[in-house]
Amino acid sequence: MPRSLINKIMDKVSGSKTSISALQSVRFQPEQIPHRRISKNALKVIERLQAKGYQGYLVGGGVRDLLLNMRPKDFDVATNATPEQVKACFGNARIIGRRFRLVHVRFGREIIEVATFRGNQDDSNKISMSKEGMLTRDNHWGSLDDDAVRRDFTVNALYYDSQSQQLLALPGGMEDLQTKVLRIIGDPSTRYREDPVRMLRAARFAVKLDFELDQQTRAPIPDLANLLQKIPAARLFDEVIKLLMSGRGLDTFRQCNELGLMAPMFPDSWQAMAQDDSGRLMATIEQGLMSTDQRIQAERPVTPAFLYALLLWPAVLHFWRYYHQRGKPGSTALNQAINHVLARHASFVAIPKRFSIPMREIWELQPRLTRTGKQRNLAVLNHGRYRAAYDFLLMRERSGEESSNYSKWWDQAWQEKQSSQFATNEPDPSANSGYRSQRARRPSNHGR
Ligand code: ATP
Ligand code: MG
Predict the structure, then answer these.
(1) Which helix (H) or strand (E) element contains residue 313?
(2) What burial letters (b/e) apply to 183-220, b meaning 16+ CB within 10 Å?
(3) Of the candidates 137, 169, 186, which is a domain's last residue?
(4) Into how many domains does the chain fold?
(5) CA-based nearest residue to 121, from 109, 134, 105
(6) Centre of ligand 1 from the C-alpha of residue 409, in Å
(7) How many CB atoms lie within 10 A of CB 430?
(8) Strand runs labelled E in 72-175
(9) Which residues does residue 102 pair with via DSSP β-bridges, in sequence order?
(10) Distance 263 CA to ligand 1 centre (A)
(11) Do 284 and 403 fall into the same domain?
(12) Atom 1 in ligand 1: which residue has the minimum CA distance?
């Protein structure tokens, strides 16, 4: 089918009141969707729903990733049963969410998310919209076809009935999957206005799947990027984590930045970087993301605190200088800058206290790590946040933002501290297990 015709159908489907049978059954080879690679619990949920007379499909990333021969992150289920009906089918289920009600069916540590088919948005009081056209509530139930056109991208609107082994896709959906094109369903601007997070998802999936962003899907993003400022700050916190802690954080960051999506979420930092001709502030963030990607690949722990500390560092530096120029002594100026940045930033992307406290410590330790001569205090080595702060300094040195080679000095000091503790057998508070003490003897391996 020619693309123009597909677009026409899509426009009609997303704009029309009547439900058009949009999904089509598509042929596939059974080995493309091997049941052994599907969560047993997701299969159980579908089986149970169907046994109770409801429809039940595996949907979204689970189906998409199997067809792409990738390992799905999770398995979502879509059904025509209402959340209450789903809950009644399972002893271990809980209704969650307000804006978007869902059921979580729990099996030990695994949760299967079950969503009721969403309907067309026309004349429903179960859908609320802000004056910018943003959906603030979407709990209007509909048919399977309605549900398909409410999803974000064609490759995310794939439905698999594991009982009858039938695969359903929107027209062009399978073609997009095969030709690796990420295409939003319906009119791109309208869909981004309804939910601006879809712009972040576009960047994330294009990188994760190694797909090309369809031209029309991409075009309106830079102009609409500011709408991200209307998204509840707590939701954006989660979205940024998904973007940057995926294992492809650096590429996703670059894609988002190119589309103008980072500046609205971190306005003070991006403003500070616009004034930094050297490009080193941006390079520090990129070094941190590269190191985070490497750690994720090596299955070493990473923390959002380190990432957010990087993203907000240009703003902290800016205001540190600002307060300092107005006569505040260095540490007071830094403290005020940190308070200012954290407070202002909370209205864009909310950072929970369990992360903002370590962020503050990482920042506060920076001047202590870059002192010279007698002012240097070895007690820093015993600080609970020393290793994260050291890693942070390393990123700043790699980017050239911090030109002296302080990390080398601290590396040596750390090594000496470890060997003297080892020699005197002085108990090291961090070395209470074999694994930790072994790590402590490897100074280059400064874990966070
Ligand atoms: P992954 O889990 O690998 O990140 P996914 O495609 O499964 O990818 P989820 O966030 O788990 O993404 O969402 C599941 C499905 O719900 C998506 O595939 C998509 O169909 C739909 N969806 C999620 N968020 C949105 C949104 N903001 N707008 C429209 N549809 C959405
Ligand atoms: Mg998913």
Answers:
(1) helix 304-325
(2) bbbbbbbebbbbbbbbbbbbbbbbbbbebebbeebbeb
(3) 186
(4) 2
(5) 134
(6) 47
(7) 15
(8) 76-79, 93-96, 102-107, 110-116, 127-129, 135-138, 159-161, 166-169
(9) 96
(10) 24
(11) yes
(12) 61
| Tokens coding 443 | 């100074």
Same domain, 160 and 302: no
SS3 of the chain: helix, strand, coil, percent, to 5? 55, 10, 35
- Do 415 and 323 belong to one domain? yes
Tokens representing residue 8 in the block = 């026409």
The strand pair at 166-169 and 159-161 is best described as antiparallel
CATH code of residue 330: 1.10.3090.10
Residue 137: the pLDDT is 65
Q: 419 and 309 in one domain?
A: yes
So what's the pLDDT on residue 42? 98
Q: Whose CA is nearest to atom 14 of ligand 1?
A: 60
Q: Give the chain's residues under pLDDT 70.
A: 1-21, 121-128, 135-138, 422-448
Active-site residue, 74 included = yes
- Nearest-5° Cα angle at 415, 412 to 421: 140
Residues of the domain holding 156 = 5-186
Question: Which pLDDT belongs to residue 371?
Answer: 85
Dist CA 256 CA 66 (whole Å): 26
What is the reported pLDDT for 15?
Answer: 42
Amino acid identity for residue 271 in this structure: Q
Cβ(408)–Cβ(420) under 8 Å?
Answer: no
